[in-house]
Design brief:
Layout: E1 7-13, H1 17-29, E2 33-39, H2 42-51, E3 56-60, H3 68-77, E4 84-88, H4 91-96, E5 104-107, H5 111-151, E6 155-160, E7 163-167, H6 169-175, H7 197-209, E8 217-224, E9 230-242, E10 245-253, H8 261-270, H9 280-295, E11 301-308, H10 311-318, H11 320-337, E12 343-348, E13 351-356, H12 361-376, E14 379-382, E15 385-388, E16 391-398, H13 405-421, E17 427-429, H14 434-441, H15 444-456, E18 460-469, E19 476-485, E20 491-492, H16 494-503, H17 507-525, E21 532-537, H18 540-543, H19 548-558, E22 566-571, H20 572-577, H21 579-591, E23 595-601, H22 607-613, E24 618-621, H23 623-626, H24 633-648, E25 652-655, H25 661-670, E26 674-675
Parallel strand pairs: 1-2, 1-3, 3-4, 4-5, 16-17, 19-21, 21-22, 22-23, 23-24, 24-25, 25-26
Antiparallel strand pairs: 6-7, 6-10, 8-9, 9-10, 11-13, 11-16, 12-13, 14-15, 18-19, 18-26, 19-20
Helix pairs in contact: 2-3, 10-11, 11-12, 15-16
């Protein structure tokens, strides 16, 4: 939610009325229109955070209870994006408070410093809210566009080089296909009767050659359904662009489509056929609307993620038909348990989801328990067997601090998994991990201190992930990955700290630490495995450091390593933003025998520019395209285009983030050279992958 009419909504935690007045007067003198509330017990603070929207929280360390760390834990537990500034009574107290998780610590007497910190944190929180609002607006725009296509009575498809990359529901119905996957990779020409191939090709060739015109081209031909039945159709071609790529929009109109198709499509789209509840698509739309309302300050809510325990075993016991009956019965039970304002959906096979329009913990717990009991009371006797159902429920907040519906669902799913691991038939509320708390609460100065300490105390560590050959030359390659050790034994991933390291100009030193430690490990490992090579990432800061290559040469010699053992990589966007410097560094690295790669290839607007201006050896396909690509035709088309482009340029391509067997199989068929990802092998502190036994 944006700042309301210039008013600063301030929550003060202080048992001293005088101290609170001092803070309010200081902020008003700085030009803020302050609307403040003062609380001094943990219960009052929780109630205030739950029932109202705040821009800032300022607390004093003079109270014995609650302490600042408890307040920060409460804020994180409620998943609120509220910056917290702690007022320290003296210098000694100030230093002790640096680790409490606050955004800043300011001496009570330092009014100017407090005013400065407040301005900074308000600017940051409003920018975060604006960013989330823009993300929601973008998703809403994309959703509306997709909804228009899905609700269209006309059959609509998008093609690239004659292959389907998207089809709407009307298209599937018209041609008699059940799922979009059934039509993936199918040439459009196969949908046209053989007798009309010649005329279709002639018209389409003429259309393709007139790319400079916006006028659509129409042809009437006999089309062929999945079952071989033919029908007469008018096909309209027009030029289009999808995510910056040229493609062809195809609209097929058939007068025989029943007038009631639109209503039928909407009904099928909005409701699950088996349960009669909201479908996954419709529920996600409702969730987005609830999130939008929360972001605008119109009330928070929670998501209940209900998973039937051991349902796969039950399905195997009773069979598919009876399991469908059970699902329908559960849906009826949940529907009867609904109260006004709640929304219920059948999210997947054994998952039901409920939006409860309150964030009052007691009320939420009571509603979750009522759903758990409703399912727990279900007993069925089938063929002499007793089916006794139980469920696990995960609870996640829906409020302005969450950027997307996917985040809410992931949080609820994590909580549900915790409930199942604890034995099932119970309820768990999502709580952010210590790593997530650190990411969202520490200020830039605290991050700088943390990273400096990590360098000095060897709190950084390296993980290694193998890069395996699918069609490329057999090599023993590891990608070098950086982590930060936590006091609890866990590790911070680069996503958590790289941005802060960049903002504090520490990436140069961190890169050097990584290279020194990686060279130590590689030199030792190559005594037994002399063919091993490392991929090491370079930051933009290192790329722009003149003496870097000289330092690298000295470090290589000190470890008795040859440059050919190294492949250095940088992100495609950083390379293009520092084009001349990148070209110079690539040339210098190649002179000492190293190879060079572009990471996250495909992130740029124009893929071909990187290939035409940079003399690289490897291209790592952007992992966002690769993840679950087997289920996403758009990502599949992007990966296919990148692989083809890479081969034409004589480069080697690597698919990162390979997460499942279907994606790996598809990458094999598409001809990618190398692959890496959790499905192949998780990152490890050990160089223990057996490349010789690799049967990928």
């Amino acid at each position: 939610m944006a700042r309301a009419e210039g008013i600063l909504r301030l929550l003060i935690v202080d048992d001293s009325l005088t101290g609170a007045d001092t803070v309010i007067n200081a902020l008003r003198s700085a030009g803020h229109a302050v609307r403040a509330s003062r609380e001094h017990t943990l219960a009052e603070i929780e109630k205030a955070l739950t029932n109202h929207t705040w821009d800032l929280l300022i607390c004093s360390d003079s109270m014995e209870n609650p302490r600042p760390a408890e307040i920060m834990n409460l804020i994180h537990g409620l998943a609120k994006d509220i910056p917290c500034i702690v007022l320290a009574s003296d210098k000694a107290s100030e230093e002790k408070l640096f680790t409490c998780g606050a955004y800043d610590v300011v001496l009570q007497a330092d009014i100017k410093r407090l005013q400065f910190a407040v301005e900074r944190e308000l600017s940051n929180v409003f920018n975060r809210r604006l960013a989330r609002r823009n993300e929601r607006a973008l998703r809403e725009s994309e959703k509306r566009s997709h909804a228009l296509l899905e609700s269209s009575r006309d059959a609509v498809a998008y093609m690239h080089e004659g292959m389907h990359i998207y089809v709407n529901s009307a298209y599937l119905i018209l041609f008699g296909y059940e799922e979009a996957e059934d039509i993936d990779g199918l040439p459009f020409l196969d949908m046209v009767s053989v007798d009309d191939h010649s005329r279709f090709k002639s018209v389409f060739r003429q259309f393709s050659e007139s790319a400079d015109t916006s006028a659509p081209e129409t042809v009437t031909v006999q089309c062929v359904k999945a079952d071989g039945e033919s029908f007469k159709a008018n096909i309209e071609f027009s030029h289009a662009r999808v995510e910056g790529e040229d493609c062809t929009q195809v609209v097929i109109r058939d007068e025989v489509i029943a007038a009631g198709t639109d209503a039928q499509l909407q009904l099928l789209r909005d409701h699950d056929f088996l349960s009669g509840l909201y479908s996954r698509v419709r529920f996600l739309e409702e969730l987005e609307q609830v999130m939008h309302a929360a972001a605008e300050g119109n009330g928070d809510a929670v998501l209940l993620y209900i998973v039937l325990d051991d349902f796969q075993a039950i399905k195997e016991q009773v069979g598919l038909g009876i399991s469908d009956v059970i699902i329908k019965s559960v849906a009826d039970l949940l529907r009867k348990n609904l109260v006004e304002g709640e929304l219920l959906g059948h999210f997947s096979d054994r998952v039901f989801t409920v939006i409860v329009p309150t964030n009052d913990n007691d009320k939420v717990d009571a509603r979750a328990e009522s759903y758990r009991e409703a399912i727990g009371d279900y007993v069925s006797h089938i063929d002499g067997s007793v089916i006794d159902l139980h469920c696990s429920i995960g609870i996640s907040y829906i409020n302005e601090s969450l950027a997307s519906a996917e985040t809410v669902l992931e949080n609820a799913d994590r909580a549900c998994v915790q409930a199942q691991h604890a034995g099932g038939n119970r309820i768990e509320r999502y709580h952010p991990t210590e790593q997530q708390k650190v990411v969202t609460t520490q200020s830039p100065s605290e991050w700088k201190t943390k990273l400096e300490n990590a360098l000095q105390n060897d709190e950084f560590c390296l993980f290694y992930q193998p890069i395996v050959s699918l069609h490329g030359e057999e090599q023993e390659i590891y990608d070098v990955l950086l982590r930060v050790k936590q006091s609890d034994g866990s590790f911070l991933s680069p996503d958590s700290f790289i941005q802060h390291a960049t903002e504090t100009n520490m990436m140069g030193e961190i890169d050097k630490w990584v290279i020194r430690k990686a060279f130590d490990a590689l030199a030792t490992h190559r005594v037994k495995y002399p063919k091993t090579r490392f991929f090491i990432k370079l930051s933009e800061q290192t790329l722009c450091t003149r003496e870097y290559v000289d330092w690298l040469c000295v470090t290589l010699n000190a470890h008795n390593l040859d440059g050919s053992a190294m492949v250095f990589e940088i992100s495609e966007t950083s390379a293009l933003e520092n084009l001349e410097q990148t070209k110079a560094v690539i040339s210098q690295l190649k002179n000492i025998g190293c190879e060079f790669g572009l990471e996250h290839f495909g992130s740029g607007i124009d893929f071909s520019q990187s290939l035409s201006v940079l003399d690289v050896d490897y291209l790592k396909i952007n992992g966002h395209f690769v993840q679950n690509m087997a289920k996403d035709t758009e990502n599949q088309a992007a990966v296919k285009a990148i692989i083809e482009m890479t081969k034409q340029a004589g480069k080697r391509c690597i698919a990162e983030f390979v997460s499942d067997a279907n994606s790996l199989a598809l990458l094999w068929r598409l001809g990618v050279d190398y692959a890496q990802g959790y499905y192949i092998h998780e990152p490890s502190e050990k160089l223990d992958y057996n490349f010789e036994d690799d049967d990928l």
